[in-house]
Design a protein that fits this description.
Strand order of the largest sheet: 1-2-5
Number of helices: 5
Helix content: 40-55%
Largest sheet: 3 strands, antiparallel
Structural class: mainly alpha
Strand content: 5-15%
Length: 181
Amino acid sequence: MFEGYAGTSESGFRAEVEAEQALIRGERLLAMTSDHEHRALAGPAADEAARRLDRFAERARFQGTVVTDPHRIKRLMRRHDPYIHPGDYVTCAFNPDRALCQQRTDSSGTVRPSPSTCQPLDCRNAALTAENTNALHSEAARMDAELASRPTLPPLLLHQLTDRRNRIVAFLDRHTATDQP
């Protein structure tokens, strides 16, 4: 959408959108660190994401004040981006060498993950917040309801939904703690 038929658009719109996305992501990451959500991450990249967010939080603190100004957040993200990308189903602790998504390069030449090609159940960059875990549980429940619906689904769709549901449940079982002592 940002590119023309003949190549890169020079309007600056793409860079402006990317800057706004970085601002929103920075605000979300600051909220995660101030609420200590990053200490309760689960998943294959949970430890790495927590370390990155700890460093990010240290850099965000400036003589005891909290970063709330959009210009300071943009500057913080430009200088100390932890390459953590929160999403609905997964929080990506992006490492391009391990990523399974089709990576993209932003207007500044930085390699970024591509959320539309994310494979959270297989990627080692995946970390899970409580919100991510709830979203995955809800997705599995929706699939359970679809699988129990009448009339029965076509065999191929039934197989695909069952497989996807089983993969989500197995992923959650592997990477989330049980409440039992």
